[in-house]
């Protein structure tokens, strides 16, 4: 693993996750009450003994830089690092990143300085736990130029992914199509029993989808990026073209994996963590922990509360409220009489002490947290939000899409998203 260099792609502007990406890069979006999305691929690398990690970003990277600097510091006796490479303009390259491949190409001059044998290319907005050592072993055993991590997928979601066909005899990828539609999609149907699925499973999942996780031989990646400057994306251009002339192999991943690049997928993945008896993805794995920044917060305080099927981060203060099927982030503050159902609260970056909160109330301002007698259902409350007294965030008209930035909220797929630092006045009904 010392010969592997990991590159995590931070993604573009994150428009599908907006407004959560309004003030932060996509990998910096909080997840599961105390983590950030970037913690997932970085932790997978560390657990796989891959310690040289670059993160490529372009948009709103300040909070991501801060999180990585405070979280990942390897001992001085190791070559290990987690370093952010932000998009930059140079005399040779005056433009910003044009795509995933172009982002790596812009920093080839730096990547080539390392004495590595493989480049591991990862995405920054997926939720999964994976031992990359098995992935790389498959890559080396098949003497592949490129290896893709794949999953079987059903008809409903197939057009959202890059799909491929595989030679049954040697496992080589013979064709690849990025997010096909219509007739092109129908042509990508395959018998997925070649991946080891049962006939029943193969019938339900007749496509092989790329997870956006790749291993390249060092010289192959450098050659592909240097010889085709107009090709700017791995999934759309580099991989499909390489499938014709290079040994491109597929590695079947059979664990939980979720692309959480949309508000709906992000919301569902977070609330799925509360499922009983076992959630599809668990943070409770001592053998492969997910790391994040230690905050040294006090334990959560529950004062006469009713909490069912929920996760609550550290440092929260909850008074005489009801929490059902929800995830509460660090430093969440919920006052008496509140009802929180099917919601994700990201918590707060700071505490207001009793004097500050009382001063806010005296002035008619709203303190950070959820005010008394408020009801929140099927919502995402971003950090540092100030929700007043007797507020009802319930989407009472069942609106599917709405943009009310001046009022402090959006609605995406029927899920109400309260903006970071937003203030929702007393008595508001959304």
Fold blueprint:
Layout: E1 4-9, E2 30-31, E3 35-36, H1 39-47, E4 52-57, H2 62-71, E5 81-86, H3 100-106, H4 108-111, E6 118-123, E7 126-128, H5 132-141, E8 146-153, H6 155-158, E9 162-166, E10 173-178, H7 182-186, H8 199-204, E11 207-217, H9 218-227, H10 234-245, E12 248-252, E13 257-259, H11 263-272, E14 301-303, E15 306-308, E16 311-312, E17 317-319, E18 322-324, E19 327-328, E20 333-334, E21 339-341, E22 344-345, H12 354-363, E23 369-370, E24 375-377, E25 379-381, E26 386-387, E27 392-393, E28 401-404, E29 409-412, E30 415-418, E31 423-424
Parallel strand pairs: 1-4, 1-6, 4-5, 8-12, 14-17, 15-18, 16-19, 17-20, 18-21, 19-22, 21-24, 22-25, 23-26, 24-27, 25-30, 26-31
Antiparallel strand pairs: 2-3, 6-11, 7-13, 8-11, 9-10, 9-11, 28-29, 29-30
Distance between the termini: 51 Å
- Low-pLDDT stretches are none
CATH class of the largest domain: Alpha Beta
Label the CATH architecture of the largest domain: Alpha-Beta Complex
What is the structural class? alpha/beta
Overall pLDDT level: 88
Globular, elongated, flat, extended or rod-shaped: what is the shape?
globular
Number of domains: 2
Query: How big a fraction of the residues is strand?
Result: 25-35%
Spell out the CATH superfamily of the largest domain: Spore Coat Polysaccharide Biosynthesis Protein SpsA, Chain A
Radius of gyration: 23 Å
- How many beta-strand elements? 31
Number of helices: 12
What percent of the residues sit in helical stretches (DSSP H or I)? 10-25%
């Amino acid at each position: 693993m010392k010969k592997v260099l990991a590159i995590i792609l931070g993604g573009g502007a994150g428009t599908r996750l907006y407004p959560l990406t309004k003030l932060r890069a996509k990998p910096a979006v909080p997840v599961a009450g105390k983590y950030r999305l970037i913690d997932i691929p970085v932790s997978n690398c560390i657990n796989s003994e891959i310690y040289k990690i670059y993160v490529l970003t372009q948009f709103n990277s300040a909070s991501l830089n801060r999180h990585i600097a405070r979280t990942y510091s390897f001992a001085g006796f190791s070559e290990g690092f987690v370093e952010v490479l932000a998009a930059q303009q140079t005399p040779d390259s005056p433009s910003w990143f044009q795509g995933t491949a172009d982002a790596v190409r812009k920093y080839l001059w730096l990547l080539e300085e390392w004495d590595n044998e493989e480049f591991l290319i990862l995405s920054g907005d997926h939720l999964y736990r994976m031992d990359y050592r098995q992935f790389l072993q498959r890559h080396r055993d098949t003497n592949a130029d490129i290896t893709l991590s794949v999953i079987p997928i059903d008809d409903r979601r197939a057009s959202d992914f890059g799909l491929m066909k595989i030679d049954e005899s040697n496992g080589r990828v013979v064709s690849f199509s990025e997010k096909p539609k219509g007739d092109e999609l129908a042509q990508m149907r395959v018998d997925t029993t070649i991946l080891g699925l049962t006939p029943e499973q193969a019938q339900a999942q007749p496509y092989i989808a790329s997870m956006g996780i790749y291993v390249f031989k060092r010289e192959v990646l450098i050659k592909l990026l240097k010889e085709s400057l107009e090709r700017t994306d791995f999934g759309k251009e580099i991989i499909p073209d390489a499938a014709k002339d290079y040994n491109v192999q597929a590695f079947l991943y059979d664990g939980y994996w979720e692309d959480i690049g949309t508000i709906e997928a992000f919301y569902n993945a977070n609330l799925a963590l509360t499922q009983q008896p076992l959630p599809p993805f668990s943070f409770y794995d001592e053998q492969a922990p997910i790391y994040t920044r230690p905050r040294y917060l006090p334990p959560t305080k529950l004062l006469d509360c009713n909490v069912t099927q929920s996760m609550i981060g550290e440092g929260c203060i909850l008074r005489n409220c009801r929490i059902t099927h929800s995830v509460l982030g660090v430093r969440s503050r919920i006052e008496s009489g509140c009802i929180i159902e099917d919601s994700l609260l990201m918590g707060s970056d700071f505490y207001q002490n009793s004097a500050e909160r009382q001063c806010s109330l005296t002035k008619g301002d709203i303190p950070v947290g959820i005010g008394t007698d408020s009801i929140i259902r099927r919502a995402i409350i971003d950090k540092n939000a100030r929700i007043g007294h007797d507020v009802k965030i319930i989407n009472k008209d069942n609106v599917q899409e709405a943009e009310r930035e001046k009022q402090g909220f959006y609605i995406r797929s029927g899920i109400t998203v309260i903006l970071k630092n937003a203030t929702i006045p007393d008595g508001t009904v959304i």
